[in-house]
Design a protein that fits this description.
Elements lengths: L2 H5 L8 H8 L5 E4 L2 H10 L8 H11 L11 H5 L8 E4 L3 H11 L4 H4 L5 H17 L3 H10 L1 H6 L10
Parallel strand pairs: 1-2
Subcellular location: Golgi apparatus membrane
EC number: 2.8.2.-
InterPro entries: Carb_sulfotrans_8-10 (IPR018011), Sulfotransferase (IPR005331)
């Protein structure tokens, strides 16, 4: 594949042979976040016009996966973990620990390059917020969300997600 052409195209526009050739030369890192936390973040940032979290979730569910915004679309459909063999999967909430490991593996001084993370505070805050928002949803909405994100929940280590319960 010509390199100039590659700068103007997205990965999905290449054929499988070209994609394999390109990705084979890179260290591939995927950053993932619990899908329910992604929904909360989208709602808090005003990504929808819904007055309540419950109605926002219903709008997302009614829209389906094909019409979903990239902000809350299932990760599996965005990053293709079954096709792309990622070298590392970094889970939001464990950034300091995992990024430090990545920098070490790359031979870089981990401590001096990492910003200050407050992972413990972030995890506690999101845990509390998630429980509050989750309690606003009907049982049917909870089940529908678990189905909506079933592939993400299977593919990534979101064992503490409220959607797996």
């Amino acid at each position: 594949y010509p390199r100039q052409r590659a700068l103007e195209m997205q990965l999905g526009e290449f054929n499988l042979t070209e994609i394999e050739a390109m990705l084979g030369s890179y260290t591939k890192v995927l950053f993932v976040r619990d899908p329910f936390q992604r929904l909360i973040s989208a709602f808090m940032q005003g990504m929808g016009s819904s007055p309540s979290f419950s109605s926002f979730v219903q709008d997302v569910l009614d829209g389906g996966q094909h019409n979903a915004s990239v902000t809350w679309k299932p990760l599996v459909s965005l990053c293709r973990p079954c096709l792309v063999q990622y070298n590392y999967v970094v889970v939001f909430g464990f950034l300091r620990q995992e990024l430090g490991h990545l920098l070490q593996r790359a031979g870089l001084p981990a401590g001096s390059l990492l910003p200050k993370f407050t992972d413990t505070q972030v995890r506690w805050t999101y845990s509390w917020l998630s429980e509050q928002m989750f309690s606003e949803l009907s049982l049917q909405q909870k089940k529908q969300l678990s189905r909506f994100y079933r592939w993400d929940l299977s593919a990534f280590p979101f064992s503490s997600s409220l959607l797996t319960g």
